[in-house]
Amino acid sequence: MALRRPHKPRSLSAVPALAVIAMLVAAWWLAVIVTHSAIFPTPWQVLTGAYELARDGTLWIDIGASLMRVAVGFALAVVVAVPAGLWMGWVAGAFETLNPVFQILRPISPIAWIPIAILWFGVGNASPIFLIFMSSVFPMVVQTTAGVHTIERRYLWAAENFGVSRATLFRRVVIPAVLPQIIVGMRIGLGVAWLVVVAAEMIALRSGLGYLIIDSRNAGNRYDLVIAGMAIIGLIGLSLDGIMRRLERLKIVRWRYVH
Amino acid sequence: MSTKIAVRNLSKSFDTDQGPLAVIDDVSFDVGDGEFVAIVGPSGCGKSTLMHMLAGFDRPDQGTVTIDGSANHQPSPKGILIPQQGSVFPWLTVQQNLMFGLNGQPMREKTELADHYAAIVGLKGFEQSYPHELSGGMLKRAELARALVVKPEILYLDEPFSALDALMSLRVRRELRRILDEERHTVVLITHDVEEALDLSDRILVLSGRPARIQATFRVSFPQPRKISSPEIQDLRDAVLRELGV
Q1: pLDDT per residue over B34-74, tens digit each?
Q2: CB contact under 8 A, A164 and B103
Q3: What is the chain B residue with the closest CA to A250?
Q4: H-helix or E-strand containing A102?
C-alpha cells in the first residue's frame, strides 16, 4: 500500500495562505493611507468599484466574453494537439518531420503574433481566439508526444503478448498511458490561454477583462476598476486551474500521481 | 513427454560503446510438454535476455527457438511472459486487466472468466480495485491471473517473486503450485533463488556468468508438495550452489 503523508483537514490547511493574503491587503491599505495617494485606490474602493460593475452588468459581459474566447481557442487547440501529439509520439517519421517546425514556432511569444492576428482576422473575436490557439497548442503537443515516448515497454509488450488488435492497443493501452501527460499539457495550455486572452483584449475589441482594464484607465484613471479587473483575472485563473486539477483526480489517471 | 520448446545454439550480443558484448553464448536445451524448468544464474548474466528470446520479444543473433516444432518469433497468447517489474496495467481495474486478453467471448462470459480467475488467485472482492490500491503480493497474483485466464500453453516467469518479501514470496509460490497441479502448463522460470527453483521445478538449468552458457543441469524428481528442509533437497541445493560458486 502506498504510504501517504498525514495531512491536516482541508479547512485548516488554507489558513496560512489566507493569512498571507490578508497581510498583503492590509499592507496595501496602509500604504495608500500613509502616502495619501490620490490615484491609487484602497482595497475598499476596489471592492465597491467591482460591485458597481457587477450591478450594471458590464463585469459579467466582460468575464463571459473572455471565457468564451478562451473556451473556443483552447478547445480548438485540444482537438488539434492531442491527435497530433499521439501521432508524432507513435510514428517516428511524423516526429522527425514535424517536431523541428513545432520547436521553432513554440518559443515565439503569442504577443508577437498580435499584428499578424489583426492582419488576418481583424479586430473581432477571431483574433484573440487565434492567439489563444497558438499559445496553448504547442505545450499540449509537446506533452502528449513526450507521453507517448515515455510509455513503458513492459505495457506495450504485454499488449502484444495478448495479441490484441491495433485499435485495442491504442484505446486500452496507449491513450490511457498518455492521459496523465495530456492532462498536464492541458493545465499548462489553459494557463497560458488565460494569460494571452487578457493581453490580446488590451489591443483591440470592445469587451473582455483585458479591455475592461485598459478602458478603465483611459476613461478617467479608474484605477479601482483596473485593480478589480486584475484581481478577477487572478481568481478566475485560479478556478480554471482548480478545474484542471480535478481531472487529475479521475480514477483512470490516479495511478500516475500516486506514489 | 513430447518436446514443447527446443532451443538450439542460441547466441546474442549487444552493441556497446566498447564494442559488442556477448550476453548469451551457444545455449541449447529442450523443455518438455507440461514440464517446469527453472533457469538459475548470477544476476546480470543475461537470463532476462534469454527469456525475451524464448517469448519472441527479442531475436537471437544465431540459433533458433522452436515451439511445437515451428520456429516461433512472434509473441502470442500461446506463451505469456510475466516480466520482472510486472506489467499489470495501472489504469485498468483488476477485472479489466483480467479481461484484457479475452477476445471473442460475449461480455458476460468474459467477466465471469475474469472473476473466476481472480478468485483462484485469492483476489475475490478486489475485482474493482485499481493496481495502486493493491499490495505487491496481490499485484503478482493479478498478473498471474491475467496470464492464466487466456489459457496459455506456456508461462514465461521472469523472477516473478523477487520483488516480494520472503513470506509473501512463499505464499504466491504455493498458490502457483496449486494452480499448476490443476491446469497443466509448460513453465519456464527464471530466478536467482535456488530454493524457489527446488520448490517448484522438474529440472534446474544453471547458467554461467556473462556470456551465459549452460553450466549444469539438475533433475528435481521429488514429489509435490516438497519439504525444502528435507536432507535430499538440501543436498541438491548444495550441489546447485556449488555450481553457482557459492
Answers
A1: 999 999 988 777 888 999 999 999 999 999 999 988 886 78
A2: yes
A3: B91
A4: helix A92-105
Nearest CA in chain B to A254: B91
**What is the per-residue pLDDT across B109-125, written as a single tens digit (0 to 9) for each?**
999 989 998 988 888 89
pLDDT tens for B185-210 read 999 999 988 988 998 899 999 998 88
Angle formed by the axes of helices A114-121 and A126-149, to 10°? 120
List beta partners, residue B158: B190
DSSP B212: B
Is the Cβ–Cβ distance between B79 and B147 less than 8 Å? no
Sheet of B186-191, strands arranged across: B79-82, B154-158, B186-191, B36-40, B203-207, B214-219
Q: Do residues A48 and A224 lie in contact, with contact meaning Cβ atoms separated by under 8 Å? A: yes
Contact A258 B132 (CB under 8 A): yes
**pLDDT tens track for B155-178:** 999 988 887 888 888 888 888 888
Residues of chain A neighbouring B83 (CB-CB closer than 8 A): 154, 157-158
Check pLDDT > 60 for residue B137.
yes
Which residues have C-beta within 8 Å of that of residue A245, sequence separation ≥ 6? A187
Rounded to the nearest angstrom, the minimum Cα separation between B8 and chain A is: 23
Q: Return the residue in A3, A155, A160, A162 with the most chain B beta carbons within 10 A, the one to mutate for interface testing.
A: A162
What is the rounded end-to-end Cα distance, in angstroms, of chain B? 33
Q: What is the ipTM of this complex?
A: 0.90
CB contact under 8 A, A161 and B90: no
A61-65, A150-154, A223-227, A246-250: segment of lowest average pLDDT: A246-250
pTM summary value: 0.83
- Are B39 and B213 spatial neighbours (Cβ–Cβ below 8 Å)? no
